[in-house]
Write a structure and sequence with these properties.
Blueprint (H helix, E strand, L loop, with lengths): L24 H11 L4 E5 L5 E3 H18 L6 E5 L4 H13 L2 E4 L6 H10 L4 E5 L3 H7 L8 E5 L16 E4 H7 L16 E7 L7 E6 H15 L6 E4 L6 H14 L2 E4 L5 H11 L3 E5 L2 H6 L14 E5 L5 H8 L2 E8 L3 E6 L13 E2 L3 E6 L12 E7 L13 H7 L5 E9 L5 E6 L3 E4 L2 E4 H9 L4 E10 L5 E9 L7 H11 L8 E5 L12 H10 L5 E2 L10
Parallel strand pairs: 1-11, 3-4, 3-5, 5-6, 6-7, 10-11, 10-12, 12-13, 13-14, 24-25
Antiparallel strand pairs: 1-2, 8-9, 14-15, 15-16, 17-18, 18-19, 19-20, 21-22, 23-24, 25-26
Helix pairs in contact: 1-2, 2-3, 2-6, 4-5, 7-8
Length: 557
């Protein structure tokens, strides 16, 4: 058993460590650049590059000079179409220093979905990995507000290029930074805790994806509240293999390490075959799992070396039924942190909580109120399921609403509580449990997928008359995307043609796995599609449905 696992050491971050009005990325980074200048903050597993706190601070100053010189202004929106890299993180921190706004974009996005993200968020600048430049090039004519493109080249095969036009300028990332001054970056107006720093797209449920607006303080609270609740400390090493375009990796892991003065080891992506080797080599003490990651690792053949690692804490969302056995086998403690990109992180199941409560999402963090309510927003008694609604005690800890969606913002905050759309239950001891989702949302391998968005893209095929998209359960407790399609009269359309259409216009993980053609969709008297019926019928005969994986279709990523 790993001796680090119980970890009853005092918290590295307490309620008094940070005043909320001091929570900005420039101030937090400067704090540790002064206190721990020579301590390694970031290590890349792919390249072996390391960056100390002092080097990251100086580098992000230079990147900020470069981007500001290229035209990135305070309050301006910059899309980040980038994979995991030191440059991605440095760019995000530099944009925060300018007082500008980052819009991280899922690297699997393409076609209409990519155009929507960059267009709806009013991006004036996009920084893109050269390997993804061809995708951006396809949608450039549909982005009239775009003025600047910065291309990050890694010298790999298949990298694309974009040429400047009269509509926008193009620059090379490294050349731009090389020409920038090496002096400390001092903005004309210092960013404040309440300034918008991030627009994070969350899956749409009754409409298109929504851009959640996070202030500097709200973004950093992901880290401070987690560190306080879970006992993170400066000696911790966070292993990050989830993508930086998600709040989990960017804020709940990397941000948590930053506010603690801890270290980050960054991998480009999650790999079952490399995971434990990278954990051991990096001596990582903390990491986060989403979706079926724990299932993939658990299903590997047991080894005498399983507990030979330094991990003391692993956040499992959701917590699997075999979590206690996972703890024993790998010599660590499981924890859970519940929250939403739409609002913030709100509960924690910690290393100190009773293990018979394992599977709970824990209790509210300090300064957070959680109620379980009925459809009329009245609180229900313990043991009865209802919708989880949230409220922070302090201003600016939660999101600022949805970008350019005032009606959705107001609806989600009715009666002065944020409505999660998730159903939960509170037990007699005050521990909260996730029950299910009220939202029309699909959770596949850590990705939140908007059924509405998939339906809208499917509907653009000229042969489709109607479509219903919904989740179906799998043996790994994950969900897969299913689609029931109504074809227009006298049109021939098969499953492979539909998959090809989807792949051209959406992220690979959104492409339906199960497809069924019908003459009509079942509807209620108010003409709403009865998806629950479709789901029940398909799950009852799933082996007979057309399955993309059984058909041998391999999706390009």
């Amino acid at each position: 058993m790993n001796p680090n696992a119980p970890g009853l050491e005092p918290n590295a971050v307490t309620a008094d460590t940070y005043a909320l009005r001091e929570l900005t990325f420039p101030k937090v980074l400067a704090r540790f650049a002064q206190r721990s200048r020579d301590k390694v903050f970031l290590t890349e597993t792919a390249t072996g590059r390391t960056f100390t706190y002092g080097q990251i601070d100086s580098w992000t100053d230079r990147v900020a000079h470069a981007l500001q010189g290229f035209g990135v202004r305070r309050g301006g929106h910059t899309g980040l179409l980038m994979g995991n890299s030191a440059e991605h993180l440095a760019t995000f921190l530099a944009i925060a220093k300018i007082g500008a706004v980052s819009v991280p974009v899922n690297t699997a996005a393409r076609g209409e979905l990519l155009r929507y993200y960059l267009g709806q968020s009013d991006c004036e600048t996009v920084i893109v990995d050269a390997a993804l430049a061809s995708r951006l090039h396809e949608v450039l004519p549909e982005l009239p507000l775009l003025k600047r493109v910065v291309i990050l080249r890694a010298g790999e095969e298949g990298e694309g290029s974009i040429e400047s036009t009269g509509a926008f300028e193009v620059a090379d990332f490294h050349a731009l930074v090389e020409r920038a001054g090496a002096t400390p970056f001092i903005p004309a107006i210092e960013p404040r805790f309440c300034d918008l720093v991030l627009i994070a797209y969350t899956s749409g449920t009754t409409g298109p994806s929504k851009g959640s607006m996070l202030s500097q303080a709200a973004a950093l609270t992901y880290g401070t509240s987690a560190a306080e609740a879970q006992g993170y400390r400066a000696s911790d090493i966070f292993y990050v293999c989830l993508p930086l375009f998600h709040n989990n990796a960017l804020l709940a892991a990397t941000g948590a390490a930053l506010v603690c003065g801890a270290s980050v080891v960054m991998s480009r992506r999650f790999s079952v075959s490399r995971f434990w080797d990278e954990i051991r080599e990096s001596k990582a003490t903390i990491t986060n799992f989403l979706g079926a990651m724990s299932s993939f690792l658990w299903s590997q053949p047991p080894s005498p070396a399983d507990a030979d690692n330094c991990l003391r804490l692993v956040s499992m969302a959701p917590t699997p039924k075999y979590a206690a056995e996972f703890e024993e086998r790998f010599g660590l403690r499981a924890m859970n942190n519940y929250g939403l990109s739409d609002y913030g992180m709100v509960t924690s199941f910690t290393q100190w909580d009773p293990r018979d409560k394992l599977g709970s999402i824990g209790r509210p963090r300090r300064g957070v109120q959680v109620q379980i309510v009925d459809d009329d927003d009245f609180e229900v008694p313990p043991g009865e399921p209802g919708e989880m609604v949230l409220r922070f005690d302090e201003p600016w800890r939660g999101t600022m609403g949805y970008y350019k969606m005032p009606e959705a913002t107001l609806t989600s905050r009715r009666n002065l509580w944020f409505h999660t759309g998730d159903r939960g239950m509170r037990d007699a001891d005050g521990y909260l449990y996730f029950v299910d989702r009220k939202k029309d949302c699909i959770r596949r391998r850590g990705e939140n997928i908007s059924a509405f968005e998939v339906e809208q893209i499917i509907a653009t095929h000229p042969g489709v008359a109607d479509a219903a998209v919904f989740p179906v359960a799998t043996a790994t407790n994950d969900e897969e995307v299913a689609a029931v399609i109504v074809i227009k009269p006298d049109v021939h359309l098969d499953e492979l043609q539909l998959v090809a259409h989807c792949q051209r216009n959406m992220a690979y993980f959104m492409v339906p796995r199960y497809i069924q053609f019908r003459d009509a969709l079942p509807t209620t008297m108010s003409q709403k599609v009865e998806k629950f019926k479709l789901r029940q019928e398909l799950e009852a005969a799933l082996s007979q449905a057309w399955d993309r994986e059984t058909a041998g279709v391999v999706l390009a990523r």
